[in-house]
Amino acid sequence: MGHLPVRLSWIYFSIVFVMFLWGFNVVAIKVIVEQFPTVTITSLRIFIAALVVWLILWVKRDVRLPSLKEFGLILLATFTGVVGHHYFLSVGLTETTASNSGLILGTVPLTTSILAAIMLKEKLSLLRLSGLVIGLIGVAIIVLNGADGLLSINGGDIFIALAVLTQALSFIFIKQTSESMKASLITGYMLLIGSVFLFIISLVMEPGALPLLKDGTPVAWWAFLASGILATGVGHFLYNNAIPHIGPGRVSIFNNMTPFFALIGSSVFLNEHIELTQVLAFVLIVVSVFLGSGLVDRFILKRKYQRVSEQ
After folding, report:
1. Measured in Å, how far apart are the chain's first and last C-alpha atoms?
2. Which one, out of 94, 210, 258, 292, has a CA that is 20 to 30 A from the CA of 38?
3. What is the distance between the alpha carbons of residues 121 and 134, in angstroms, rounded to a whole number?
4. Region 9-20: what's the mean pLDDT?
5. How far is CA 83 from each of CA 39, 136, 163, 214, rounded to the nearest angstrom?
6. 3-class DSSP state for residue 54?
7. Is 71 within a domain?
8. How many domains does the chain have?
9. Is residue 1 a part of any domain in this protein?
10. For all residues of the chain together, what is the average pLDDT?
């Protein structure tokens, strides 16, 4: 009594684990893009992730062809969540600061919740709205710590904003498609189709990039494999699988934890110092997860039912 169902508890645990993977993935991607052509290596990284997901699907025997309607929604999710998001993110990160990028990416939960409320009629309680605001404050403290406090709007900032919008939109399309198809299978199709389109884009944007891949160091290739297999493959598999269970808005609030894990990864692998203000920011982010994910709403509602039943 008083505990979340085992299935739901596992879903929440898996999302936190994904945030850990995605946070450390920031360090891996930093190593990767410094040695390889950005869009080309991104397409290959996502293709590796697609192979991982399809291997899991094959083992679980969860493979089937989508219907025409499902395929249309999968394409929408692919062009927003894979092609659009990763393209805008990779290009944007080459043109703007890490502080600006982190703050803008921290608006993914807010953007997703707003879109879910508009497109899916998902209700936002006052507590969930408060959680979103608190989470944004926590993310801002992390990414702006040590910066000069001035946010300049440039082309890179616009690309990162587009990356946020496309990712949030993809969560909505995944939710709609998951009504008739397993999210894991949707993820497999998205990654496979998306990697192909990104590779085509790379041929246009980065002609002659493939021969340059041979110059990568062993560390860069290990980072590439870890990023593709764990963060992108397993990470997207678990993340998208959680969306039909607790909704895109609640799932996306956990994205606020990614900057903290990225901070830990930077400290461990890049020897960056963690300050007290960053610890404070993490506390705010944890509070935002409990409020924004609806856990507090569920607890309050359950308490009300218990009081009514006891009367």
Report:
1. 19
2. 258
3. 23
4. 88
5. 10, 26, 10, 25
6. helix
7. yes
8. 1
9. no
10. 80
- Cβ(225)–Cβ(103) below 8 Å: no
Is residue 16 within 8 A of residue 285, CB to CB? The reply is: no
8 A C-beta contact, residue 24 and residue 261: yes
Q: Percent of the chain beyond pLDDT 90?
A: 26
Q: Where are the alpha helices (DSSP H) in 79-180?
A: 85-92, 98-105, 108-119, 126-144, 155-177
pTM: 0.76
Measure the CA–CA gap between 213 and 81, rounded to whole angstroms.
26
- Phi, psi (5° rounding) for residue 57? -65, -40
CB of 237 closer than 8 Å to CB of 56: yes
Instruction: Say how far apart CA 184 and CA 238 lie, in whole Å.
Output: 8
Q: Is residue 58 part of a domain?
A: yes
Domain extent for 184? 6-310
User: Does any domain span residue 155?
Assistant: yes
